[in-house]
Amino acid sequence: MDLCHVPAAREKGWYLALMAPNVKGPNYAWLDPSRLYCHPQGLQDCVADLLQPFQGDPIDMVAGIDAMGFILGAAAAAVLQKGFLAIRKAGHLCVQTLAQPYTDYSGREKVMEVRTDAISPGLRILLVDQWVETGGTMRAAIELVERLGGVVAGVTAICIEDSEGGRWIRERYKCSHCIPPRLQPRFDHHQ
Asked: What is the protein's major site of localization (predicted)?
């Protein structure tokens, strides 16, 4: 699909066709959404679909997860006219932080950090990432927000896979993603 073409009928998820499959091997995610971000209407429709379930919900701030969650998170914050908080991998913030260890989708042990002065008790945070595969990264972000007294207003990503971690998140938090139900099994099996 070319990056200028906009289909006449734009149903939810039409922009998923803009994503490219992994051609570099098993050390990379199975699908790359970054081309979707280059398409102006695709990006706008993706963000609108992610935010639609939260219309009218009280949201005080949007937090994006390092690194690709920064793109969708900042776009969502701009649409909602809210501030944006970057939740970072350890070692990137030069201020006082709170840290949370986690295991990412590839099985690697990592640490996530958030600045301690951005979340006050009761602040309602919408958490945004590009993808929730095993749920480890998102769960670490949830734990950071809650340890600082914030409230997770919702969780949103292009895809929340039907993994053990994805189910844990869906059972506890209001969630939104872009995958139509008929396509969910294909995304869960990385097809």
From this structure: cytoplasm
pLDDT single digits (tens) 129-160: 999 999 999 999 999 999 999 999 999 999 99
Structure tokens at 126: 């919408």
* Whether the predicted pLDDT of 123 surpasses 90: yes
Q: Is the peptide bond before 67 cis (omega within 30 degrees of 0)?
A: yes
pLDDT of residue 184: 93
How many structural domains is the chain composed of?
1
Contact 65, 136 (CB under 8 A): no
In a domain, 15, yes or no: no
DSSP state of 54: G
Residue 132 belongs to a domain: yes
Question: What's the rounded mean pLDDT across residues 72-101?
Answer: 97
**Residue 91: which CATH number?**
3.40.50.2020
Domain with 180 in it: 47-186
Query: What is the rounded distance in angstroms from the CA atom of residue 181 to the CA atom of residue 159?
Result: 11
Helix intervals (H) in the chain:
34-38, 40-51, 69-80, 136-147, 164-172, 184-188
